[in-house]
């Protein structure tokens, strides 16, 4: 399963989205161009623009507005990554040097701010005040989620908190990608809300699969230590299932005193989770989200976009690093 | 001259602006409340909301929308200050501890982002896509200006570069405050553009006076070393006038080799500028901006708001730290 089988109907539009993201129409500083060029070159799968373009096109929306919206959302995503990498001190993302690996913190903060501004300007070019409200609220949700995580205690096992966290971190932007595309394409409230739910479902699935891959991947391919979240005291779905279905209380022990766990205790725990049925249980949950998401447009008439969206939902659960 | 003689017709609205800025309607993390509360307690003169409220009210705009707009602009201003203080490593602003003096860089970056998002959401509540575009572009202008300054050489004496810099840093937001208020209050393009110019004029004057006070103030009252900009190689209007009207080439010498100047050489230069007519020349320039700005609404019929706006323009050139 690769991205080709959902990108093909929209490849030319994806190219135009990247052109809009690159556009230097406001005479900004050349260093910002260099930064944006660098960020775009690291690519990513453009899954959010694909959701927006396929949803909007399936619903008969104006492709020009959908391209602007896609660029706005992808720039919003890019800006949050720039600030995240700075905060985490990450030096690589998808194998490419992060901005903060090359630039001062000051330049990195400001470039993120500038990209936020560009994103908001593009969102405003859709001429829909309702859409811009949802766009801004999504940024608030993402920032609030990050702040909540920053102040959260380590090692807390709480399903509800997990869902809230991955909603803020990932699903909120998928939700925006699908819902805003529907808003530009129809006035039917029911359709708009159903695509909001669609974006939510596949966004939740996307993050759950990311969290599974964090356990099942190999350090060399995921580019960071296996189970890096758990090592930082962030409890994701595989660890939650493992805790619920075993008598192993190591997680509680490890984080109860707020100290760093012994390395061998942590390695044993990670091995136990990797080899338990927690992985397949988490995976089944991701699949349930995807199946539910797919049902939402099952009754739409057949189209190349509908098939591509189905392929996209399959990609979300089938992808590997 | 104090703020009372332009705040009095709008005091109750200013209070409502602060309520909107504080409002926690989206269930965000309690630490964000604490941060916003702290930022609001440091007060400031609320000069931007005053411009928006007086302009809009003079032009017959809806007070509810003007209050939302004022809160949006003041939150935008607050967010840029949060990131600026982080970048500068500033520990105090207006005598109150900055956010980054108390919080980690991560929490400070994210709180700034969250406040940007709140600002944009409020701007969207004005329901004017045109206004939101200008709002977002102003943030882009501010961030671009900061980035430009970050990458600029030290000690460059360039009038044009100075005007661009203070436009990006200060006048762009004053321009937004007046122009957006006019946009909410009239559809007359000519009036909107004239108030854009009004905001520009008084914003330029405001920053020039700030730059004068940086030379003429005492360290104890301005809360930082006298001529702190010059010490960092940032050349403001008093230094430009001094350079243009004297044979003293110390500025060029000091920064020509990129090294830090000798302390006594710098102190002598600062003393020379303080005691030269560069100060009054810069001051006359600020006054010219203010006089030009005031002419813009001179033909409006008399009203309490018009008088207050006149007082506000006087305050800008008469204020002291």
Description:
- Two copies of one chain form a homodimer.
- Chain A is mostly helical.
- Chain A has one domain (4-318): Farnesyl Diphosphate Synthase.
- Helices cover 74% and strands 1% of the residues of chain A.
- Chain A has 17 helices and two strands.
- Chain A has helices at residues 4-7, 11-22, 30-41, 47-58, 63-88, 99-102, 105-124, 129-151, 159-185, 189-216, 219-222, 228-231, 237-244, 250-256, 263-274, 278-295, 304-318, and strands at 92-93, 96-97.
- Chain A has a two-stranded antiparallel ribbon with strand order 1-2.
- In chain A, a hairpin with a 2-residue loop joins strand 1 (92-93) and strand 2 (96-97).
- In chain A, helix 4 packs antiparallel against helix 5 (63-88), helix 8 packs antiparallel against helix 9 and helix 13 (237-244) packs across helix 16 (278-295).
- Chain A is globular and about 55 Å long.
- The mean pLDDT of chain A is 90.
- The interface between A and B is large, with 46 and 45 residues.
């Amino acid at each position: 399963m690769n991205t080709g089988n959902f990108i093909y109907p929209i490849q030319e539009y994806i190219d135009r989205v990247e052109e809009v993201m690159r556009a230097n129409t406001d005479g900004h500083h050349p260093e910002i161009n260099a930064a944006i060029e660098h960020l775009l070159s690291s690519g990513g799968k453009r899954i959010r623009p694909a959701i927006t373009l396929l949803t909007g096109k399936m619903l008969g929306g104006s492709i020009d507005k959908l391209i602007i919206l896609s660029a706005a959302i992808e720039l919003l995503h890019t800006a949050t990554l720039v600030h995240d990498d700075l905060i985490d001190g990450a030096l690589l993302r998808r194998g490419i040097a992060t901005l903060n690996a090359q630039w001062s913190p000051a330049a990195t903060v400001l470039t993120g701010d500038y990209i936020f501004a560009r994103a908001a300007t593009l969102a405003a070019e859709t001429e829909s005040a309702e859409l811009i409200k949802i766009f801004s609220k999504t940024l608030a949700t993402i920032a609030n989620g990050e702040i909540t995580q920053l102040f959260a205690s380590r090692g807390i096992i709480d399903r509800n908190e997990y869902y809230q966290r991955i909603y803020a971190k990932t699903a909120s932007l998928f939700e925006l990608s699908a819902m805003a595309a529907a808003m530009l394409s129809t006035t039917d409230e029911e359709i708009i809300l159903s695509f909001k739910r669609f974006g939510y479902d596949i966004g939740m699935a996307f993050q759950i699969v990311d969290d599974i891959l964090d356990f099942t991947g190999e350090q060399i391919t995921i580019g960071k230590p296996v189970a890096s979240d758990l090592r930082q005291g962030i409890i994701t779905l595989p660890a939650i299932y493992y805790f619920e279905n075993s008598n192993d209380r190591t997680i509680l022990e490890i984080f109860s005193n707020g100290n760093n766990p012994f390395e061998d205790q942590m390695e044993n725990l990670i091995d136990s989770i990797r080899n338990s049925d927690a992985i397949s249980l988490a995976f089944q949950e991701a699949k349930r989200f995807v199946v539910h998401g797919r049902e939402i447009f099952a009754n739409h008439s057949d189209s190349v976009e509908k098939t591509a969206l189905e392929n996209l939902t399959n990609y979300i659960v089938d992808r590997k690093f």
